[in-house]
Amino acid sequence: MSTYRRSCLIRGDGGRAIRGLLDRVGDKWTLLVVATLDGERLRFTELQHRVPGISQRMLTRTLRHLERDGLITRTAYPEVPPRVEYALTPRGRTLIAPAVALAEWAVDNDPAITASQAAYDAEHP
After folding, report:
1. CA dist 112 → 25, 35, 99, 109, 119 (Å)
2. H/E element holding 85?
């Protein structure tokens, strides 16, 4: 695919689709929750313990958004006490590879970005 075609895909509909997606996956918790669910079905409490620092409220909110977007499933079992498990959908699993690629890019480029920021800040106090 040409560079031009790739940039057209990004600009596409004036950026609406990409902005909507980045708003969702670019928040503080979504990719951490998705990565934690990779290959596993987890109960709410297990998920909360595995995502450091996430509050019950934020986990609930994140899970609802992911379920609405069709990236996870919520399965409630009629037991006492009630048991609810969360898992990635096939569409949710397709997010893993690009998320890992982005994470690898961030780790690989962080030292250079940090150096650039320091140089810029020194020149523009």
Report:
1. 24, 26, 20, 5, 10
2. strand 83-88
Model confidence, pTM: 0.78
Say how far apart CA 77 and CA 57 lie, in whole Å: 22
pLDDT tens digit sequence for 29-82 = 999 999 999 999 999 999 999 999 999 999 999 999 999 999 999 999 999 988
What pLDDT, in 10s, does the model give residues 41-51?
999 999 999 99
User: CA 117, CA 119: separation in Å to the nearest integer?
Assistant: 5
Cβ–Cβ < 8 Å for 85, 43: yes
| Parallel, antiparallel or unpaired: strands 72-77 and 83-88 | antiparallel
Alpha helices (H) in 3-69, listed in sequence order: 3-11, 16-25, 30-37, 44-50, 56-68
